[in-house]
Amino acid sequence: MDKSRVTRGGVELIRHVFLVTFATASVVNLHLGHLLGQEVSSSTGEDSSQVSVQALRQIDRDYADFLNKRTRIVDSYAQVQKSLRESEQDLQRIGNEAIRQQMAAFQARLQSMKMDAMLNESRRRADGQDNPGGPRPTSQLATQRIDMKVMTQRALAVGKTGAEFQFALRESELNQLDATSQAVVRARLDNFRRANQLEGELVQWVADWPKFMDRYWPYTDFERSWSLNRIQETLKELNLANQENLAAKLATARLKCRIGLADEALGLVDEVIEQETPLTIVATAIKAEILTVQGEEKKAKAALQAALRIDAENAYVRWIRAELLLDQKQFALAEPLLKGFMKNRDFELPARKRLALLYFNRSLDVKGKRAEADAIKALKEAEVAWQLEAKPSWHTELIYALAQYRVGDSEASLKQVAKASEKATDTSLDLCREWEQKMKDGEVEPWLFLTTFGEK
């Protein structure tokens, strides 16, 4: 037995008991490839370069519809403001001072709403009024970006009070007016209510924004398991996305970083961060990842801390943090982070695979019983992952093979890596063959987590 394997004493019994226990559990789990019941199959049995073209284009069409909804909300609100301005003189002709004061209070309330201030600031920025003498946005896209930034800032500040405010008068008060005055007041009340409703729609629109990151995340090769060809084919489709599709930009950035284009990736991420949208937190975490690949450790740490300050519980931020900790060999910190994904059906499978690799790597750094214990843990997690996946991918098969190798099951590990090679293509197949040779030579090395193509 070579030095890179631990003894097999007791391993077979533990393995048998574990498999029997696991096999009796009727647990159904979904991995990120099925996130939100969506279109991509990121962990299928083969590493296919055939990208789900229709799926990516459908997401982009949905994003375009999403942006159009924003436009409809803004246009509707502008129409409300116009109607109120046009009826202002009619309101002043009403002889009932108490009614006029109440309507003035409603008007003040409307002007204090975040959406009203947001639109005014948006127009001022678009007209260059906040930067006299400076350049004005010359394209529709530039103006839309300004709107997006301002709308997010304002809408996120809306509280329950705004949503619950009632623009209404008692019927007895209205009956004191003549028919013409009643019509004016009722029309203004309708406009106030409509404005309140539109602000609520905007708040919901902002809340729905991060859902597009959920849909694009499986296309980011978050496990770093895709072949070079598959990444390139996916990038071709992502490059066709709407210019305002920030989630697609983040997916593009991660893939560009994977193929060694870190500078381009960083530029895309900075564009998203500049917009100050709900996707800023994910973009900031991805920036930390890219900076780490570039060797900018201090900047990477600062970016990650910034993301954690915004929302330390964000699943994407936690995943990227775990990846960075694994790369730094901070296994004691990465381990609980990955275990925290066990109850998240979308992350459980990749998290178990990462745990298997964590234990695999750590077993190479220690000796004796500690090494044996970590090897057994690696095997356990690899087996669970293999069981969870309906059609285990080449990546899952390879991790399973490595875990088998560490517990001294050379025969099983070679059969498993052969299965991985049957499913792998392109650069993934090269990787499987490299590991197979390392196992045969008895010279396995730690798994590298933040590799880009061109690195070993």
Notes on the protein architecture:
The structure is a single chain. The chain is mostly helical and 456 residues long. Among the domains are: 1-30 and 331-456, no CATH class; 68-208, no CATH class. 69% of the residues lie in helices and 0% in strands. It has 22 helices and no strands. It has helices at residues 11-24, 53-86, 88-92, 97-112, 114-126, 140-155, 160-164, 171-174, 179-208, 211-216, 228-238, 246-258, 262-275, 280-293, 297-310, 315-327, 331-339, 348-365, 368-388, 394-406, 410-423, 426-441. Helix 12 (246-258) runs parallel beside helix 14 (280-293) and helix 16 packs antiparallel against helix 17 (331-339). The longest helix has 34 residues, at 53-86.
Topology:
Blueprint: H1 11-24, H2 53-86, H3 88-92, H4 97-112, H5 114-126, H6 140-155, H7 160-164, H8 171-174, H9 179-208, H10 211-216, H11 228-238, H12 246-258, H13 262-275, H14 280-293, H15 297-310, H16 315-327, H17 331-339, H18 348-365, H19 368-388, H20 394-406, H21 410-423, H22 426-441
Which structural class fits the helix and strand makeup?
mainly alpha
Distance between the termini: 26 Å
Overall pLDDT score: 80
Biggest β-sheet strands, sense, barrel: none
Rg, Cα atoms, Å = 29 Å
* Low confidence ranges: 7-49, 125-148, 158-165
Global shape: elongated
Order of helices and strands: HHHHHHHHHHHHHHHHHHHHHH
The tally of beta strands, per DSSP, is: 0
User: Considering DSSP H and I runs of 4 or more, what fraction of the residues is helical?
Assistant: 55-70%
Oligomer: single chain
Give the count of helical stretches.
22
